[in-house]
Every structure is written in structure tokens, then in C-alpha cells.
Amino acid sequence: MKQVILLGRGGQGAVTSSRVLAIAAYKDGKYSQAFPNFGVERMGAPVRSYCRIDGKFINLREQVYEAEYAIILDSTLLQSFHEKVTDTIIINSNKDSSEIKLDTKAKIKCVDITKVALEVIGKPFVNIAALGAFAAISEEVTLKGLEKAVEQQMGHKGPIVEKNLKAVEEVYKLAGGK
């Protein structure tokens, strides 16, 4: 089973991202779960959301304490990130990965998701686009699965959906997807 932590700020869409990621895994023929964990609900407060992906039914119903992957939507939250990650931490940042200092053995991969979102969507909506980086780096979900999940979550067609799908694809390529 692969576990993913998504860290963002209230209003940034971390909860929606975990839901879309779980739907994408399901569309790819896997089992999945998505669930949030946040304290006081307010705009700008740190929000953690989680996703589990597996090839078999998931019985586990507890918080994620150790994950293979983390997606950090807002790099200003790095100082409050203390969860154990064993594989890769994807950070929305224009910095070089070597500049990020975290107490972890996980690989750190910085991807400038905000830049792509501003260019493609016209606003800094990074939550859905960040899933393109996850797909490229982890190979746990496919671009096709993400496309189906975004359409299911956001509605089947329209300019906002199309812009988000294009942003997912651009971030996927930026993160090394083929």
C-alpha cells in the first residue's frame, strides 16, 4: 500500500487533491481512500489530507503516520512538516531541490507548479496541477486516470476543466513524465 500526505493551506484545495488522486487510482483499477485531517477550519490554516492507494482492498481506517510520498502545495509550510516520508517529497517551489533542508531520508523534488498554474490557468490554483508531478514521479496513477478523475470531480467539460487538465499535463512533463 502507498500512502500520500498532502499539505496545504485552507482554501488551497489539499482535500480536493486527495479526493481527485483517490479517484484517479480507482479509475486506474486500484483501491483507494482519501480523507482530510484539519483543526479549526479557516482560510490559510495548515491542512493535511491523505490518500492511500493499493492493488487490493484497503481495510486500514486510521490517520497516516508514515507515508511513501508527500505533496506540499505551499513551501512556507515546510517548517511545520514533521511527518515521516520514506520515498519522495514533492514541493511546489521554484528553488532547486538541493536548497531544501529537511530532516528526512526521502528524496526531495521541487517543481514550480505555481508558475505553470499562473501560465495555464491564470491563477495560482496548484492543487490539481500538483497531481501531475505526483503521477510523473511516483507512477502510482496515470495521466489518463487523472484526466478521468478531474472530469468526474469538476464536471466533464468546460474551460476550467480544460485549463486544469492542461496544467496537470504541463506539470507532469516538468516533473519528468514522458
TrEMBL record:
EC code: 1.2.7.1
Pfam families (alphabetical): POR (PF01558)
Domain Pyruvate/ketoisovalerate oxidoreductase catalytic: 10-172
Enzyme class: oxidoreductase
MF GO annotations: pyruvate synthase activity
SUPFAM superfamilies, alphabetized: Pyruvate-ferredoxin oxidoreductase, PFOR, domain III (SSF53323)
InterPro entries referenced in this protein's UniProt entry, alphabetically: Oxidoreductase_gamma_subunit, PorC_KorC, Pyrv/ketoisovalerate_OxRed_cat, Pyrv_flavodox_OxRed_cen
Reactions catalysed, as given in the entry: 2 oxidized [2Fe-2S]-[ferredoxin] + pyruvate + CoA = 2 reduced [2Fe-2S]-[ferredoxin] + acetyl-CoA + CO2 + H(+)
Keywords, ordered alphabetically: Oxidoreductase, Pyruvate
PANTHER family in alphabetical order: PYRUVATE SYNTHASE SUBUNIT PORC (PTHR43366)
UniProt name for this protein: pyruvate synthase
Native organism: Candidatus Iainarchaeum sp
